Amino acid sequence: QVVLVSGHLDSWDVGQGAMDDGGGAFISWEALSLIKDLGLRPKRTLRLVLWTGEEQGGVGAKQYYQLHKENISNFDIVMESDEGTFKPSGLGFSGSAEARDIVKEIMTLLQPINVTDVYDNADGTDIAYWMRDGVPGASLHNDISKYFWFHHSQGDTMTVQDPNQMNLCAAVWTVVSYVIADMEEMLPR
């Protein structure tokens, strides 16, 4: 059984892609790194996917889906961060009402960093195939007021990234992915 965390590497125009979507790739990598460093071993596999070709029609996501859809019942949740890694506020979630209640409960663990909201509907080109077929999905919600200042521009460099805000995003990704991967049962469909 798999809990999938992801971001994509799609700097295809003038920018370096540090914020869009290097930040999403980084926090996904960091989540697994933190879990390993803490010596935690969840019941399910945590899988990192660094998508490619999102800007060219999602070809990487489509290929991954085609290769793994036969095991769709083993995918517990698919998570994608693709709106920068600014100050987080919570998660967008798509799934059953029962699964949403569980995710809301998990988010209470993030009260100390004031990131507890669960919004309707997860977004993500790269996880859309899975959500369409009933796999619960989550996307990071954060302050996107500056996102389009840098999106697909020459300004999308590492200087855009605030290490403290990225750490908060990584904390959200780590807590949610680990708790879901370590629950006794998969999220209800």
TrEMBL record:
<comment type="similarity">
    <text>Belongs to the peptidase M28 family.</text>
</comment>
<feature type="domain" description="Peptidase M28">
    <location>
        <begin position="1"/>
        <end position="173"/>
    </location>
</feature>
<keyword id="KW-0964">Secreted</keyword>
<dbReference type="GO" id="GO:0006508">
    <property type="term" value="P:proteolysis"/>
</dbReference>
<keyword id="KW-0479">Metal-binding</keyword>
<keyword id="KW-0458">Lysosome</keyword>
<keyword id="KW-0645">Protease</keyword>
<protein>
    <recommendedName>
        <fullName>Carboxypeptidase Q</fullName>
    </recommendedName>
</protein>
<keyword id="KW-0256">Endoplasmic reticulum</keyword>
<dbReference type="GO" id="GO:0005794">
    <property type="term" value="C:Golgi apparatus"/>
</dbReference>
<dbReference type="InterPro" id="IPR007484">
    <property type="entry name" value="Peptidase_M28"/>
</dbReference>
<keyword id="KW-0333">Golgi apparatus</keyword>
<dbReference type="GO" id="GO:0005783">
    <property type="term" value="C:endoplasmic reticulum"/>
</dbReference>
<dbReference type="GO" id="GO:0004180">
    <property type="term" value="F:carboxypeptidase activity"/>
</dbReference>
<dbReference type="Pfam" id="PF04389">
    <property type="entry name" value="Peptidase_M28"/>
</dbReference>
<keyword id="KW-0862">Zinc</keyword>
<dbReference type="GO" id="GO:0046872">
    <property type="term" value="F:metal ion binding"/>
</dbReference>
<dbReference type="GO" id="GO:0005764">
    <property type="term" value="C:lysosome"/>
</dbReference>
<keyword id="KW-0865">Zymogen</keyword>
<dbReference type="GO" id="GO:0006590">
    <property type="term" value="P:thyroid hormone generation"/>
</dbReference>
<keyword id="KW-0378">Hydrolase</keyword>
<dbReference type="GO" id="GO:0005615">
    <property type="term" value="C:extracellular space"/>
</dbReference>
<dbReference type="GO" id="GO:0070573">
    <property type="term" value="F:metallodipeptidase activity"/>
</dbReference>
<keyword id="KW-0482">Metalloprotease</keyword>
<keyword id="KW-0121">Carboxypeptidase</keyword>
<dbReference type="GO" id="GO:0043171">
    <property type="term" value="P:peptide catabolic process"/>
</dbReference>
<keyword id="KW-0732">Signal</keyword>
<comment type="subunit">
    <text>Homodimer. The monomeric form is inactive while the homodimer is active.</text>
</comment>
<dbReference type="InterPro" id="IPR039866">
    <property type="entry name" value="CPQ"/>
</dbReference>
<keyword id="KW-0325">Glycoprotein</keyword>
